[in-house]
Amino acid sequence: MKTPKRLSSRFFYDAEGSRLFQEIMHSPEYYLTRSEYEILDTNKDDLLQLFTAGNRPFELVELGAGDGLKTKILLSYFQEKKADFTYAPIDISQSALDGLTADIRRQWPDLRVDPQHDDYFNALGRLSADSDAQASPPRLVVLFLGSNIGNFSRQEANDFYSQINSRLRPGDLVLTGFDLQKHPAVIHAAYNDRQGLTKAFNLNLLRRINRELDANFDLSAFDHYEVYNPENGEARSYLVSQKDQTITIGALDMVVPFRYGEIIHTEISRKFTRTDIEQLARATNFSITGWFTDCKGYFADVLFEK
Ligand code: AVI
To answer: Where is the Histidine-specific methyltransferase SAM-dependent domain (predicted)?
Structure first.
């Protein structure tokens, strides 16, 4: 068995995990969502000018749309301004897409929605090919908001943006939400909220394994622990075994021993400097054409152009 033990943060988002994440986003410590909301709201007109430069229609392609709360600021404004665009949320969860699409159709019956139930890169490749076939091809504008990029390692982020780049045409855009490095205490608190929501979110991984893989984790025998390292900008989440114990995972026919104090690494949430972002753009063949931050300078939405 590998040490340290690891669980991928991809598994956080079952129904309960998604619900807890919604609560985290509204907690006083989790500044990320409010900062990005402020950025999009303050700069929606500048963004619209950039998206429609050259009077081209555009296709707003959102990777992992979730409940689309922040995107709705843009959708609402673009509708009001009668912009010529289609919204194409991509998600591997059909139920998340159905909910979002129904919600948008209710709020803005005239908005063109083109939901893509697929893997990000397949869907991007198809949207690119479809728009190529049109007489006046729309510009693709990819949204990857909410600091989702922070959950990738440096290498994974480079690979991800290279893959996106290979599916776009010159002039297409990518708007990414990056959480910036700042006073370490602010970041540490965001992953250690006083209500214990992040703790419950982390422990829910074990509940999910119990339910889906017939395991017998006792949630009260594990604690949540978070470290933020200001030298490399990495916040890391762990679960810590509070005693010597042995877990069985029926579906995998596995017995897993834990020592007192042993950790399971569950998530990395990277925080960026301007140099990190410039390096990412350079390494993946994008240029930076827009840089927007909130009034505290906590978060940045950065526009890359192919
Ligand atoms: C989804 N992702 C950007 C969140 C983050 O901040 O890394 C997930 C999260 N983990 C703990 N709190 C929120």
So the answer is: 2-305
pLDDT in tens, 64-75: 876 777 899 999
pTM of the entire predicted model:
0.95
- Whether the bond between 4 and the residue before it is cis, its omega within 30 degrees of 0, is yes
Using the 8-state DSSP alphabet, how is residue 185 labeled?
H
β-strand partners of 60: 87, 141
Residue 123 and residue 90 in contact, taking contact as beta carbons nearer than 8 Å: yes
Distance (angstroms) between ligand 1 centre and the Cα of 61 equals 21
Question: Which residues form the pocket of ligand 1, taking CB atoms under 6 Å from any ligand atom?
Answer: 24, 32, 146-148, 150-151, 191, 198, 201, 267, 269
**Of all atoms in ligand 1, which is nearest to the CA of residue 269?**
7
> Which one, of 275, 273, 270, 261, lies nearest residue 297 by Cα?
273
Q: Answer yes or no: are the C-beta atoms of 306 and 168 closer than 8 Å.
A: yes
- pLDDT tens track for 238-271: 999 999 999 999 999 999 999 999 999 999 999 9
